[in-house]
Design goal:
With about 190 residues, the chain is mainly beta. The protein contains three helices and 14 strands. A hairpin with a 6-residue loop joins β1 and β2. The N and C termini lie far apart (about 50 Å). It catalyses: dTDP-4-dehydro-6-deoxy-alpha-D-glucose = dTDP-4-dehydro-beta-L-rhamnose.
Length: about 190
């Protein structure tokens, strides 16, 4: 596997190291030892599958709070997605920044989303499927979200969502709690 760092601290894309011949190719898609060797999370608690019927379906932004924060390794196995990751770790040098990566069945690229970051994607084709390995078990009481069009982040999506859940449309505006604490200290 080929690990490429991104602009977000602790996040990376993972490219397959293909061994090709006339049959096609063989590649390792997961190896806990390689992740350990790169200082990346290597514990897997579950694998999730997100199937999306329609192009321009939006899912996210989702994350879990401590002590149930989860790292995710996403790969699009059918179709394509515009995947966006938000850094919501207050102590991170890239706090409140985001990156976008295209994941597709054709490019085989994966995205590692670190604990404390939120993730969302917009499908770019009908019948799109994304699988992701998750480091923690889903805990409903720890689930949080950020609205896909929250003005605090100014994310540029390649298209308007056509399908989006009521929950994902209803997350409140993001509030940087550090700024609230600083304002209270000054007042």
């Amino acid at each position: 596997m080929i690990f490429k760092t991104t602009e977000i601290a602790g996040a990376c894309t993972v490219e397959l190291e293909k061994r090709a011949d006339d049959r096609g190719f063989f590649a390792r898609g997961w190896c806990s030892q390689e992740f350990d060797d790169h200082g990346l999370p290597s514990q897997i608690a579950q694998m999730n599958i997100s199937f999306n019927r329609k192009k321009h379906t939006l899912r996210g932004f989702h994350y879990q709070v401590a002590p149930y924060q989860e790292a995710k390794l996403l790969r699009c196995v059918r179709g394509a997605v515009h995947d966006v990751m938000l850094d919501l770790r207050p102590d991170s040098p890239t706090f409140m920044r985001h990156i976008a990566v295209e994941l597709s069945a054709e490019n085989y690229r994966m995205l590692l989303v670190p604990k404390g970051c939120a993730n969302a994607f917009l499908t770019l084709a009908d019948e799109t499927e994304v699988t992701y390995l998750v480091s923690e078990f889903y805990t409903p009481t720890a689930e949080r979200g950020v609205r896909w069009n929250d003005p605090a982040f100014r994310i540029e999506w390649p298209a308007e969502p056509v399908v989006i859940s009521e929950k994902d449309c209803s997350w409140p505006d993001f509030v940087d709690e550090r700024r609230l604490v600083a304002a209270a200290d000054e007042g």
